[in-house]
């Protein structure tokens, strides 16, 4: 089961795909952890909530750079070795974060997390074709990328749940131990994966890969609008719940768990629809996000219903954008560009939300997220009408 050999038993191929999916779940869960732990991290390390939000910004920016850089610099290396190295780095980063005595040490650990995120996600997204026969590539890719989507909506509630019993540091310890377990599992299930025969690059004649025009650029722009809008608000959701909704720890945990459950449902519901029409699916999801964030900002009441709607909306964003980018791009370069755009958007959204939370109010971040979600829906709608062939 190498680059051209997929004759290994079906069970072995499925285990390899499942292992990589668990790997994407673990890296994205690690990235999202500070969202549910922000108040505790800020208090323990003696910084403001906005400053603590840089623990989301830093890995996002680093991952955006790491994705294309690693795609080029490791092009002659066995992809199995690269994935194992990145998972080992993630384990170290989470354990360092768990024991960080000061904020600078914590931030340094999050930089290491960003390197692992960018490289692992970029390689894992296209590895399905190396593990299964051609007829099963679509399903394998969906399972692997599903780890990203599920982690985006379940990672925070799970981390918050653990921290409510044993503190925020225990959450990073648990994720570090999970990364070690995944390292062993990947080593046991992944076959040798020779590097691609040709360097990672897009054909010059393929205008879909233009950085300045074409459908690919539009999808990347929509990624930036939707994801940055979400994280401008979501990064500061816990402070909002505590300060505006006056929610205690039990209600915060319950609200985030409901959000996560709704997000998983949204992920699979949107995936089925996005395979046929990703543009209209994204418009629907962005509208759901905007309505839920606006409702929170307007009422400040116990937010369970609004968070369920928000979860349904954002839960489908990742898989919808992934399917859309696969339609408009291709290969490791297209994936690396998408991973870069996604992670830059996480970083910018978290950073902007922090400045708004510290400079205006924690309620104002909900309006920022609402505005960007509305703009995303509008751009997708206008571009669809102006395009001669529908998406």
UniProtKB/TrEMBL annotation:
Membrane topology: Multi-pass membrane protein
Residue stretches in coiled coil: none
Places the protein is found: Cell membrane
Name listed for the protein in its UniProt record: MFS transporter
Transmembrane intervals: 12-33, 45-70, 82-101, 107-131, 143-166, 172-190, 211-234, 246-270, 282-301, 307-326, 333-352, 364-384
Domain of life of the native organism: Bacteria
Lineage: Bacteria, Bacillati, Actinomycetota, Actinomycetes, Streptosporangiales
Organism whose genome encodes this protein: Nonomuraea insulae
Pfam family, one: MFS_1
Gene3D superfamilies cross-referenced by the UniProt entry: MFS general substrate transporter like domains (1.20.1250.20)
Keyword terms: Cell membrane, Membrane, Transmembrane, Transmembrane helix
